Amino acid sequence: MTQDLQEIKSSYDALPGPSATATARARDLLTAGRKPRTGYAKHALRAGTVGLAATVAAVAFMIGPNGGATPANAAELLQHAATAAAGQPAPRTGQFVYVKRLEQNWILTLSETEGTGEHTQEVIREAWVSATDPGNALTRSTYGKRSIHKGQVPAAMPTPGTVDYQTGRCAADVLPEENLPTDPDELLARVRADAETSVRNERPKPSEDQVGPRVEVTVAFRLVSLAQNPFPGVGMREAVFGAMSKLPTATMRTDLTDPAGRQGIGASLRYDGPDGWERTELIFEPGTYRFLGWRNLTEARDGGPEVLRVATAMLESKIVDTMPHAPEARAC
Question: Membrane-spanning regions, if any (predicted)?
């Protein structure tokens, strides 16, 4: 794990305030004379104290979309998600994990003849992973629509309608995690210890006042990575959500939409990345707290609108008994 974390090099300076939607709903509730709900988590890494904005945001989360209760904050949301993930089945010998996802990827291309280009590509990604031989997985990528933001798309890039098969460890993000504790507190302690080792081994060596913030954002990054795995192993998924619920850096949003167009509520993490501000959000189905997907957005340091860099919608995940035969598949 420590080796994986070496590539995460960012520091954490600030956390987001409530969304405009949350603030507006909170004002309406306050005007109507509702009693604010307290208990909104303090942000341990943010300078100063949590002010009126955090209290207002807590009020906005009291009422669900159909009159039912909505979690009061990100910690409560993630605890519900952990409970919902507890009953996930595990594949038996001879079975396969099947995962189908819709991905939206922002792609930067550099070409000597065509110059610099930027475009967004949609891909339906399917994976079949054997319970006994996960390193010999099969993936099928079906390329969908793409949107050009700048320049041209190089001719070598897959065109919409292209179907590509690969075998090997292409679906590594669906493989079970080994040697990680399934207790949330123990998992968080392990991830934090590995994060500190990774940060202190960075070159150039960070100063002591930089170590703490960098460790916290590295911890968040690693847990988000684990949360995206639909079959991380028995007991691991609920452990990940349980560990994330203990992070003081998570805030809640009630106005999210996944790439498939499904409305959801989510836990949001904002941090200072190597190229500017970044925000990663986990999206859950309201009421059931089923994991719908995630997305990552960036914002330039000098301001400007956020740009969606990558987003994934979990369309289907199940245990199956067979895997398609793809003689034209190439190695990863």
Answer: 44-63
Identify whether 176 is preceded by a cis peptide bond (ω within 30 of 0): no
Max distance between CA atoms of the chain, in angstroms, equals: 67
Backbone angles phi, psi at 290, to 5 degrees: -70, 140
What does the alpha-carbon distance between residue 142 and residue 327 come to, in Å, rounded to a whole number?
Answer: 17
Of 47-56, 75-84, 117-126, which range is least confident? 47-56
The ranges assigned to domains in the chain are 2-89+174-319
- If DSSP states are collapsed to H, E and C, what string results for 45-91? CCCCCCCHHHHHHHHHCCECCCCCECCCCHHHHHHHHHHHHCCCCCC
Query: DSSP alpha helices (H): ranges in the chain?
Result: 2-5, 20-31, 52-60, 74-85, 184-200, 208-227, 236-244
- Residues 6+ away with beta carbon under 8 Å from 174: 97, 99, 127, 129, 137, 229, 230, 231
Q: Rounded distance, CA 40 to CA 167, Å?
A: 46
**For residues 303 and 267, what is the distance between their CA atoms, to the nearest angstrom?**
23
User: Distance between CA 105 and CA 79 in Å, rounded?
Assistant: 29
Quote the pLDDT of residue 175. Answer: 67
**Phi, psi for 246 (deg, rounded to 5):** -90, -5
Contact between 298 and 271 under an 8 Å Cβ cutoff? The reply is: no
pLDDT mean over 116-136: 90
State the chain's mean pLDDT as an integer.
77
Q: pLDDT (tens digit, 9 = 90+) per residue, 282-320? A: 999 999 999 999 998 988 878 788 888 899 999 999 999
d(CA 69, CA 76) in angstroms, rounded, equals 11
Burial readout 95-110 (b: 16 or more C-beta within 10 A, e: otherwise): bbbbbbbbbbebbebe
**Helix (H) or strand (E) segment spanning residue 116:** strand 115-130
Q: How far is CA 300 from CA 14, 71, 319, in A?
A: 15, 32, 42
Give the contacts of 112 (CB within 8 A, at least 6 positions apart).
none
